[in-house]
Amino acid sequence: MSTYPQQIRELMDRSMRILLLAHHNPDGDTLGCLLALGHYLAPGRQVTMVCADPVPDLYKFLPGWDRVLTNQEALALPGEYQLAIAVDASDLGRLGTGGEELLARCHRVASIDHHATGEAFGDPAWIDPEAAATGELVYELLLGAITPEIATALYTAIVTDCGSFRYANTTARTLAIASKLVEAGADPHGIATVVFETRSLASLRLLEQALATLQVTDDGKLGWMDLTEEMFQKAQADDTQGEGFVNYVRMIRGVRIAILFRENSQKVRVSFRSQDLDVGKLAASFGGGGHMRASGCELPLPLATAKEKVLATAQSFIEGGHGGT
Ligand SMILES: [Mn+2]
Per residue in 13-43, pLDDT tens? Predict the structure, then answer.
């Protein structure tokens, strides 16, 4: 039995001013955990919730989202914190610009995460790669003190990271915790409608353009798609609206590695997905990270060069049979 939750509970009990940190380019897991902890700790304490990037529109149904500050906004506030808790961030870089500066103001830093890759930080650093979402760990931490707001936040954390319980990371524990959260007031249909069944027109216009670039190798085992800055402009889509597009490539029968290349000013953000290969290792070979079936990296290269490099490596990765389990 892990002692990490107990250690973090003791730290929370002793701390009056607490900083909670999500990772940059936030997803449902990191935001759900941030807000769940925020709701849990708020009574009787001064809690500051931060994320390097603004909360995407998609997650603005989560109770308390409007109290999340950017790292820069928090840096403008005076004072120190007795405790920082980072959620779902596999290394310090994931906290984004200003993240480390904020941690320098905290007497103690704890981390709760489920990524197997990355240079862990924090004391304690509670990392459980068996968890489908960091939300499972935060659930365990809160010992059943689950209000409807917390239930909504944690259910969203879990359901997004396990793709509605469809991904390989879904376990009996994932489902058992989700069940408890529904009992505590989370609305599975309402959350699924907002998170999975609702898209802006701009987002579909963006997808239309991205799908037009879809390619697979002759053997059909490697598939990829591009998202360029020009497409975003044409679709009038914002930065967050390409989320999840890589899954369309992953869906193609026979594709073992699916890649999305996202052009982003002078860099290319690369997302990897696989049904059966360890793409965490593939991303790590480019200095990135993530999980076995979902990972990513960032290359400071023009799109064409980044593609050439990544596709060649992915191709030999498939041929080398880097199966993992
Ligand atoms: Mn996560």
Answer: 999 999 999 999 999 999 999 999 999 999 9
Structural domain for 131, as ranges? 4-196
Cα–Cα distance for residue pair 258/243, rounded to 1 Å: 14
Q: Does 172 lie in the same domain as 23?
A: yes
User: Which 8-state DSSP code applies to residue 106?
Assistant: B
pLDDT tens digits along 177-226: 999 999 999 999 999 999 999 989 999 999 999 999 999 999 999 999 99
CATH number of the domain enclosing 66: 3.90.1640.10
CA–centroid distance, 78 to ligand 1, in Å, is 30
Residue 68: how many other CB atoms lie within 10 Å: 23
Q: Which of 102, 34, 111 is nearest to 72 (CA)?
A: 102
CB 151 within 8 A of CB 109: no
Looking up residue 297, the CATH number of its domain turns out to be 3.10.310.30
* Final residue of a structural domain among 196, 222, 238: 196
Give residue 292 CA to ligand 1 midpoint distance, Å: 13
Entry pTM: 0.87
Report the C-alpha gap between 103 and 37 in whole angstroms: 17
Report how far ligand 1's centroid is from the alpha carbon of 269 (Å): 18
- Whether 325 is covered by a domain: the verdict is no
- Domain contains 62: yes
Give residues with Cβ within 8 angstroms of 98, minimum separation 6: 52, 70, 71, 72, 74, 75
Q: Which residues surround ligand 1, an ion (CB under 5 A)?
A: 29, 88, 134, 161
Cα of 203 from ligand 1 centre, angstroms: 23
Q: How far is CA 265 from the centre of its chain?
A: 21
